[in-house]
Amino acid sequence: MKITKEKLKGVISHLNYVTGSHNEPYTQTKDDNGRIKLTPNVGCYFLAGGYGGYQIQRMSRGGGCSCPLGEGYYPKAQLVLMIRAYLSGYNDAERKQAEGLQSYNDLMASYQ
Fold first, then answer.
1. Helices 5-19 and 76-99, interaxial angle, to 10°?
2. CA angle 103, 109, 111 (to 5 degrees)
3. Per-residue pLDDT of the chain (112 residues; tens, 9 = 90+)
4. Which of these, 81, 58, 60, 61, lies nearest to 71 by C-alpha position?
């Protein structure tokens, strides 16, 4: 199946929905003087492109961003697979937290 940029954005939109994040990296408002102000939506995942590939970035406080899947740029099909794996890990962590299970690191530390 060919992965289009729109499908890739749809997968990222689903990631934002699952994590309870905004779908846009910035919220645009106007101040009292009518000037446009951009406020970063912390935690929002969004698509970035460069060098013929794509990556997802996550908005940080102050308008900076991080690259949760690594610093590289990837083909669209590979990035979709990476996002799906990221979502699977996120869902597993949520389920473990809801069930009150220990993290792997806590579990291993209890054996020492």
1. 10
2. 115
3. 799 999 999 999 999 999 999 999 999 999 888 899 988 899 999 999 999 999 999 998 876 899 999 989 999 999 999 999 999 988 888 888 777 766 666 656 666 5
4. 58
Residues 45 and 48: their CA atoms lie apart, in Å, by 10
Residue 98: both structure tokens together: 């809801």
Tokens of 34: 């009518």
Distance of CA 59 to CAs 9, 31, 62, Å? 16, 22, 9
DSSP 23: S
Using CA atoms, how far apart are residues 21 and 96, in angstroms rounded to an integer?
Answer: 21
- Helix, strand or coil for residue 2? coil
**Rama region for 100: left / alpha / beta (φ>0; ψ in -120 to 50; rest):** left
* pTM (two decimals): 0.80
